[in-house]
Amino acid sequence: MLGHPVAENPIDRMFDAVYAHYGLPWQFWKCDVASEGELAAAVAGVKALGFAGACVTVPYKVACLPYLDALDDDVRAIGAANYLTVEGGRWVGHNNDGKGVVKAIEKVTPIRGKRVAMLGAGGAGRAMAMELAWAGASHLTLITRREAQGVEVAHLVQKASGVPAEWRRWTSDIVIPEGTQILLNATHLGCAPELERVPVDWESIPSSLTVVDVITNPRITPFLAMARDKGCPIVDGVDMLVQLAMQIFEQWTGIEPDEVVFQRAVAEALNE
User: Fold this and answer.
1) Is the pLDDT of residue 192 over 90?
2) Distance CA 95, CA 218 (A)
3) pTM for this model (two decimals)
4) Strands 53-55 and 83-87
5) 61: annotated active-site residue
6) What domains lie within the chain, and their CATH numbers?
7) Cβ distance 142 to 165 under 8 Å?
8) Which one is catalytic: 61, 99, 103, 114?
């Protein structure tokens, strides 16, 4: 994995446990790339060292694209990559961030016909917005600090899917638009060890609203804990991680994994 920071992410312990289960002499390494200025060297180094593939996490999902040899259709549509494969000596970029989110959410509630609000629209958020639209969401509201980023992703979603999408400004206590049925935190707020508060106005969130967080550590973030206390159905980032990791594992190894193996591995990695 290439990203910054990466220390709290349980993905390496999860993958290593799954490799061991299937008898593979493999290891998953987390590599903290301190700045974008070092990214080109990091991508070239991973390729030169003979890795079978790589995951890319924040803040490099968009920045890595110029250093890849080819992009799949999802990456071309979304404009970000979250994992790489080596094919014929070339680095190929892929993106299944949104696919993992869709699978996790649909275990709890259908997406088709739902109005969705999303906090943040970075490399992962833009993939999630696109996949939610492709999964049948009726409307997307993107709430971001940076207007250019939110407007860009809203335009991208509308162009690629035809689903109406709009940008709203991130304020000190975000009022969730009336009629929202799924609310997704696609920011880093709430991640260990800081456990920062997501600044939403909880009075604007009804108990019928499904609340989703992409954070993987801890499983129940302060954001999800507040939602659960209000009686909202919740979807945690760990299940999203499992869904997308299974797809990546199969592409890297050619083995179709059992979800139970991944769920057990990530629970052990989080000391649950």
Assistant:
1) no
2) 24
3) 0.89
4) antiparallel
5) yes
6) 2-95+239-269 (3.40.50.10860), 98-235 (3.40.50.720)
7) yes
8) 61
